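Re: zinc ion structure - here you go.
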Amino acid sequence: MLDGGTKRFVWIQGLIAFGFLLVQLLCLCGCRQDSLSHSPEELRLTLQKEKSMIFNKLTSEEERVIVHKGTEPPFSGKYYMNKESGSYLCRRCDAPLFRSSDKFDSGTGWPSFDDAIEGAVQQIPDPDGRRTEIVCAHCGAHLGHVFFSEGITVKNLRHCVNSLSLNFIPEAYASTKLQKAIFAGGCFWGVEYHFSKVKGVLSVKSGYTGGMTDHPSYQQVCTGKTGHAEAVEIAFDPDKVSYETLAKLFFEIHDPTEINRQGPDIGTQYRSAVFYANEAQKRVIDKLIALLKTKGYHVVTSVEKAGTFWEAEAYHQEYYKKNGHQPYCHIYQKRF
Ligand SMILES: [Zn+2]
Protein backbone atom coordinates (compact mmCIF):
# COMPACT_ATOMS: atom_id res chain seq x y z
CA MET A 1 0.00 0.00 0.00
CA LEU A 2 1.21 3.52 -0.76
CA ASP A 3 0.50 6.36 1.62
CA GLY A 4 -1.02 9.61 0.33
CA GLY A 5 2.35 11.41 0.01
CA THR A 6 3.94 8.57 -1.94
CA LYS A 7 0.90 8.30 -4.22
CA ARG A 8 1.11 12.01 -4.94
CA PHE A 9 4.84 11.65 -5.61
CA VAL A 10 4.26 8.76 -8.04
CA TRP A 11 1.46 10.70 -9.74
CA ILE A 12 3.66 13.78 -10.20
CA GLN A 13 6.50 11.60 -11.53
CA GLY A 14 4.07 10.07 -14.02
CA LEU A 15 2.98 13.51 -15.12
CA ILE A 16 6.58 14.61 -15.65
CA ALA A 17 7.33 11.44 -17.65
CA PHE A 18 4.25 12.03 -19.80
CA GLY A 19 5.28 15.62 -20.42
CA PHE A 20 8.77 14.48 -21.37
CA LEU A 21 7.32 11.91 -23.79
CA LEU A 22 5.12 14.57 -25.35
CA VAL A 23 8.10 16.84 -25.96
CA GLN A 24 10.02 13.92 -27.50
CA LEU A 25 7.10 13.14 -29.81
CA LEU A 26 6.88 16.75 -30.91
CA CYS A 27 10.60 16.74 -31.64
CA LEU A 28 10.16 13.64 -33.80
CA CYS A 29 7.95 15.67 -36.11
CA GLY A 30 11.23 16.63 -37.70
CA CYS A 31 11.61 20.21 -38.73
CA ARG A 32 8.48 21.11 -36.90
CA GLN A 33 10.55 21.50 -33.77
CA ASP A 34 14.11 22.52 -33.19
CA SER A 35 16.35 19.48 -33.15
CA LEU A 36 19.44 19.57 -30.99
CA SER A 37 21.32 17.08 -33.12
CA HIS A 38 23.70 19.63 -34.61
CA SER A 39 27.15 20.32 -33.32
CA PRO A 40 28.29 23.68 -31.91
CA GLU A 41 30.45 24.01 -35.03
CA GLU A 42 27.37 23.81 -37.27
CA LEU A 43 25.56 26.38 -35.16
CA ARG A 44 28.61 28.63 -35.29
CA LEU A 45 28.64 28.43 -39.10
CA THR A 46 24.96 29.35 -39.22
CA LEU A 47 25.54 32.38 -37.03
CA GLN A 48 28.56 33.33 -39.10
CA LYS A 49 26.46 33.12 -42.25
CA GLU A 50 23.80 35.35 -40.73
CA LYS A 51 26.35 37.91 -39.61
CA SER A 52 27.64 38.11 -43.17
CA MET A 53 24.27 39.48 -44.32
CA ILE A 54 25.37 42.24 -46.66
CA PHE A 55 23.70 45.61 -46.27
CA ASN A 56 23.33 48.38 -48.85
CA LYS A 57 25.78 51.24 -48.45
CA LEU A 58 24.12 54.19 -46.71
CA THR A 59 24.69 57.91 -47.23
CA SER A 60 25.50 59.89 -44.07
CA GLU A 61 21.93 61.25 -44.04
CA GLU A 62 20.47 57.73 -44.34
CA GLU A 63 22.78 56.53 -41.58
CA ARG A 64 21.61 59.36 -39.30
CA VAL A 65 18.01 58.14 -39.69
CA ILE A 66 18.44 54.35 -40.04
CA VAL A 67 21.28 53.67 -37.60
CA HIS A 68 21.04 56.61 -35.19
CA LYS A 69 17.22 56.72 -35.22
CA GLY A 70 16.96 60.24 -36.59
CA THR A 71 13.99 61.85 -38.34
CA GLU A 72 14.00 63.50 -41.75
CA PRO A 73 12.29 66.92 -41.95
CA PRO A 74 8.59 66.61 -42.93
CA PHE A 75 7.72 67.21 -46.61
CA SER A 76 11.40 66.63 -47.51
CA GLY A 77 11.45 62.93 -48.40
CA LYS A 78 10.92 61.56 -51.87
CA TYR A 79 8.03 59.22 -51.06
CA TYR A 80 5.52 61.17 -48.95
CA MET A 81 3.62 62.19 -52.10
CA ASN A 82 4.36 59.03 -54.11
CA LYS A 83 1.13 57.51 -55.42
CA GLU A 84 2.61 54.86 -57.74
CA SER A 85 1.69 51.19 -57.28
CA GLY A 86 4.48 49.03 -55.95
CA SER A 87 6.36 47.88 -52.88
CA TYR A 88 8.42 49.74 -50.30
CA LEU A 89 11.57 47.93 -49.22
CA CYS A 90 13.99 48.51 -46.36
CA ARG A 91 16.68 50.90 -47.63
CA ARG A 92 19.37 48.96 -45.77
CA CYS A 93 18.54 45.29 -46.41
CA ASP A 94 15.91 45.30 -49.21
CA ALA A 95 13.33 43.41 -47.15
CA PRO A 96 9.80 44.24 -48.39
CA LEU A 97 8.03 46.28 -45.68
CA PHE A 98 4.95 48.10 -47.00
CA ARG A 99 2.56 47.94 -49.97
CA SER A 100 1.39 50.99 -51.89
CA SER A 101 -2.20 49.79 -51.38
CA ASP A 102 -1.83 50.54 -47.64
CA LYS A 103 -0.37 54.03 -48.19
CA PHE A 104 -2.49 57.08 -47.47
CA ASP A 105 -2.01 60.83 -47.32
CA SER A 106 -1.90 61.72 -43.64
CA GLY A 107 -0.93 65.35 -44.30
CA THR A 108 2.05 64.97 -41.95
CA GLY A 109 4.75 65.14 -44.62
CA TRP A 110 5.98 61.59 -44.04
CA PRO A 111 4.95 58.45 -45.95
CA SER A 112 2.08 56.88 -43.99
CA PHE A 113 0.77 53.32 -44.14
CA ASP A 114 -2.14 51.86 -42.22
CA ASP A 115 -0.72 48.34 -42.53
CA ALA A 116 2.62 46.60 -43.02
CA ILE A 117 3.60 43.36 -44.74
CA GLU A 118 3.03 40.57 -42.23
CA GLY A 119 6.01 40.05 -39.94
CA ALA A 120 8.13 42.66 -41.75
CA VAL A 121 7.95 45.48 -39.21
CA GLN A 122 8.72 45.20 -35.51
CA GLN A 123 7.24 47.53 -32.89
CA ILE A 124 9.33 48.50 -29.88
CA PRO A 125 8.71 51.03 -27.09
CA ASP A 126 10.46 54.31 -27.89
CA PRO A 127 12.99 55.48 -25.27
CA ASP A 128 10.86 58.65 -24.93
CA GLY A 129 8.35 56.50 -23.02
CA ARG A 130 5.39 57.72 -25.08
CA ARG A 131 5.71 56.56 -28.65
CA THR A 132 6.17 53.17 -30.34
CA GLU A 133 9.17 52.90 -32.61
CA ILE A 134 9.08 50.72 -35.74
CA VAL A 135 12.11 48.94 -37.13
CA CYS A 136 12.76 46.53 -40.00
CA ALA A 137 12.21 43.06 -38.51
CA HIS A 138 14.94 41.71 -40.76
CA CYS A 139 17.87 44.05 -40.06
CA GLY A 140 16.67 46.34 -37.26
CA ALA A 141 16.85 49.52 -39.37
CA HIS A 142 14.96 52.43 -37.79
CA LEU A 143 11.88 53.25 -39.88
CA GLY A 144 9.88 55.72 -37.80
CA HIS A 145 6.95 55.36 -35.39
CA VAL A 146 3.49 53.82 -35.37
CA PHE A 147 0.48 55.70 -34.02
CA PHE A 148 -2.78 54.11 -32.90
CA SER A 149 -6.41 55.20 -32.66
CA GLU A 150 -6.13 58.46 -34.58
CA GLY A 151 -9.25 57.61 -36.57
CA ILE A 152 -7.74 58.59 -39.93
CA THR A 153 -8.33 55.29 -41.76
CA VAL A 154 -10.56 52.28 -41.11
CA LYS A 155 -7.60 50.30 -39.78
CA ASN A 156 -6.96 53.13 -37.31
CA LEU A 157 -3.20 52.78 -37.59
CA ARG A 158 -0.51 55.06 -38.96
CA HIS A 159 2.99 53.79 -39.66
CA CYS A 160 4.85 57.08 -39.99
CA VAL A 161 8.00 56.26 -41.97
CA ASN A 162 11.03 58.20 -43.09
CA SER A 163 11.47 58.14 -46.88
CA LEU A 164 15.19 57.76 -46.17
CA SER A 165 14.49 54.35 -44.60
CA LEU A 166 12.72 53.11 -47.73
CA ASN A 167 13.34 52.08 -51.31
CA PHE A 168 10.42 51.97 -53.71
CA ILE A 169 10.02 49.31 -56.41
CA PRO A 170 7.27 50.21 -58.90
CA GLU A 171 4.93 47.38 -59.81
CA ALA A 172 5.72 47.82 -63.52
CA TYR A 173 9.41 47.24 -62.78
CA ALA A 174 8.63 44.29 -60.55
CA SER A 175 6.53 42.54 -63.19
CA THR A 176 9.10 42.92 -65.97
CA LYS A 177 12.37 42.67 -64.06
CA LEU A 178 11.82 40.26 -61.22
CA GLN A 179 12.50 36.58 -61.79
CA LYS A 180 11.26 33.47 -60.01
CA ALA A 181 13.13 30.47 -58.65
CA ILE A 182 11.59 27.38 -57.08
CA PHE A 183 13.53 25.04 -54.80
CA ALA A 184 12.48 22.07 -52.68
CA GLY A 185 14.85 20.98 -49.93
CA GLY A 186 12.80 19.36 -47.18
CA CYS A 187 10.62 21.26 -44.75
CA PHE A 188 9.87 24.59 -46.39
CA TRP A 189 10.09 26.54 -43.14
CA GLY A 190 13.89 26.30 -43.00
CA VAL A 191 14.41 26.83 -46.74
CA GLU A 192 12.24 29.95 -46.65
CA TYR A 193 14.14 31.24 -43.63
CA HIS A 194 17.51 31.14 -45.38
CA PHE A 195 16.40 32.63 -48.70
CA SER A 196 14.49 35.46 -47.06
CA LYS A 197 17.83 36.72 -45.72
CA VAL A 198 19.42 37.13 -49.14
CA LYS A 199 19.87 40.65 -50.47
CA GLY A 200 18.01 41.00 -53.76
CA VAL A 201 15.34 38.49 -52.77
CA LEU A 202 12.04 40.35 -52.60
CA SER A 203 9.75 37.60 -51.45
CA VAL A 204 9.84 33.94 -50.50
CA LYS A 205 6.65 31.91 -50.36
CA SER A 206 6.25 28.44 -48.95
CA GLY A 207 4.07 26.09 -50.98
CA TYR A 208 3.66 22.86 -52.88
CA THR A 209 4.61 21.92 -56.42
CA GLY A 210 5.49 19.00 -58.66
CA GLY A 211 2.40 16.92 -57.87
CA MET A 212 -0.82 15.80 -59.47
CA THR A 213 -3.62 17.54 -57.57
CA ASP A 214 -4.86 21.13 -57.69
CA HIS A 215 -5.09 23.30 -54.56
CA PRO A 216 -3.40 20.72 -52.33
CA SER A 217 -3.65 21.20 -48.57
CA TYR A 218 -0.82 20.59 -46.12
CA GLN A 219 -2.61 17.50 -44.82
CA GLN A 220 -2.93 16.06 -48.33
CA VAL A 221 0.72 16.75 -49.16
CA CYS A 222 1.79 15.16 -45.86
CA THR A 223 0.30 11.82 -46.95
CA GLY A 224 2.92 11.70 -49.74
CA LYS A 225 0.18 10.64 -52.17
CA THR A 226 -0.24 13.92 -54.11
CA GLY A 227 3.29 13.85 -55.55
CA HIS A 228 3.90 17.43 -54.42
CA ALA A 229 7.10 18.55 -52.74
CA GLU A 230 7.26 21.18 -50.01
CA ALA A 231 8.96 24.02 -51.87
CA VAL A 232 9.64 27.75 -51.86
CA GLU A 233 8.99 30.23 -54.64
CA ILE A 234 11.49 33.08 -54.63
CA ALA A 235 11.01 36.42 -56.39
CA PHE A 236 14.40 38.02 -56.92
CA ASP A 237 15.95 41.00 -58.63
CA PRO A 238 18.57 39.62 -61.07
CA ASP A 239 20.39 42.97 -60.97
CA LYS A 240 21.16 42.29 -57.29
CA VAL A 241 21.46 38.53 -56.98
CA SER A 242 21.97 35.92 -59.66
CA TYR A 243 20.06 32.67 -60.04
CA GLU A 244 23.38 30.86 -59.68
CA THR A 245 24.02 32.47 -56.27
CA LEU A 246 20.58 31.35 -55.10
CA ALA A 247 21.07 27.86 -56.51
CA LYS A 248 24.43 27.52 -54.75
CA LEU A 249 22.83 28.56 -51.47
CA PHE A 250 20.09 25.99 -52.06
CA PHE A 251 22.68 23.21 -52.30
CA GLU A 252 24.37 24.50 -49.14
CA ILE A 253 21.37 24.75 -46.82
CA HIS A 254 20.04 21.23 -47.37
CA ASP A 255 21.55 17.82 -48.01
CA PRO A 256 21.22 17.09 -51.76
CA THR A 257 22.46 13.53 -51.25
CA GLU A 258 19.45 12.32 -49.25
CA ILE A 259 16.73 10.48 -51.20
CA ASN A 260 13.17 11.50 -50.34
CA ARG A 261 14.06 12.84 -46.95
CA GLN A 262 15.82 15.67 -45.11
CA GLY A 263 16.99 14.60 -41.69
CA PRO A 264 13.99 13.46 -39.68
CA ASP A 265 11.47 14.41 -42.40
CA ILE A 266 10.83 11.36 -44.56
CA GLY A 267 8.70 11.05 -47.71
CA THR A 268 8.63 12.17 -51.35
CA GLN A 269 7.17 15.50 -50.20
CA TYR A 270 10.60 16.22 -48.64
CA ARG A 271 12.58 15.34 -51.79
CA SER A 272 15.43 17.49 -52.96
CA ALA A 273 14.29 19.12 -56.20
CA VAL A 274 14.79 22.13 -58.41
CA PHE A 275 11.88 23.34 -60.51
CA TYR A 276 13.44 25.32 -63.32
CA ALA A 277 11.56 28.14 -65.09
CA ASN A 278 13.63 28.14 -68.28
CA GLU A 279 16.56 26.47 -70.01
CA ALA A 280 19.03 29.01 -68.61
CA GLN A 281 18.10 28.01 -65.05
CA LYS A 282 18.35 24.32 -65.98
CA ARG A 283 21.86 24.83 -67.37
CA VAL A 284 22.95 26.47 -64.10
CA ILE A 285 21.55 23.58 -62.05
CA ASP A 286 23.09 20.92 -64.30
CA LYS A 287 26.46 22.68 -64.01
CA LEU A 288 26.29 22.92 -60.20
CA ILE A 289 25.22 19.28 -59.80
CA ALA A 290 28.11 18.19 -62.04
CA LEU A 291 30.47 20.32 -59.96
CA LEU A 292 29.21 18.82 -56.70
CA LYS A 293 29.67 15.32 -58.13
CA THR A 294 33.32 16.10 -58.89
CA LYS A 295 33.63 17.03 -55.21
CA GLY A 296 32.36 13.60 -54.20
CA TYR A 297 28.74 14.41 -53.40
CA HIS A 298 26.29 11.80 -54.71
CA VAL A 299 23.64 14.38 -55.56
CA VAL A 300 20.12 12.96 -55.91
CA THR A 301 18.35 16.28 -56.49
CA SER A 302 15.70 15.92 -59.17
CA VAL A 303 15.56 18.60 -61.85
CA GLU A 304 11.96 19.17 -62.86
CA LYS A 305 10.27 21.70 -65.14
CA ALA A 306 8.34 24.24 -63.06
CA GLY A 307 4.58 23.82 -63.03
CA THR A 308 1.95 25.45 -60.87
CA PHE A 309 3.19 26.58 -57.47
CA TRP A 310 0.46 26.27 -54.87
CA GLU A 311 0.96 28.68 -52.00
CA ALA A 312 0.79 26.99 -48.60
CA GLU A 313 -1.58 27.95 -45.80
CA ALA A 314 -0.88 31.30 -44.11
CA TYR A 315 0.45 29.74 -40.89
CA HIS A 316 3.33 28.16 -42.84
CA GLN A 317 4.54 31.50 -44.22
CA GLU A 318 7.50 33.06 -42.40
CA TYR A 319 7.16 30.38 -39.75
CA TYR A 320 10.50 30.93 -38.03
CA LYS A 321 10.22 34.70 -38.13
CA LYS A 322 6.78 34.52 -36.50
CA ASN A 323 7.89 32.01 -33.89
CA GLY A 324 11.31 33.44 -33.13
CA HIS A 325 13.05 30.06 -33.64
CA GLN A 326 16.13 29.15 -35.64
CA PRO A 327 15.87 26.38 -38.26
CA TYR A 328 18.25 23.78 -36.80
CA CYS A 329 17.22 21.36 -39.55
CA HIS A 330 18.63 23.58 -42.31
CA ILE A 331 22.19 24.38 -41.35
CA TYR A 332 24.39 26.21 -43.83
CA GLN A 333 27.32 24.12 -45.00
CA LYS A 334 29.82 25.44 -47.52
CA ARG A 335 30.01 23.11 -50.53
CA PHE A 336 31.25 25.39 -53.36
ZN1 LIG B 1 16.05 45.97 -43.17
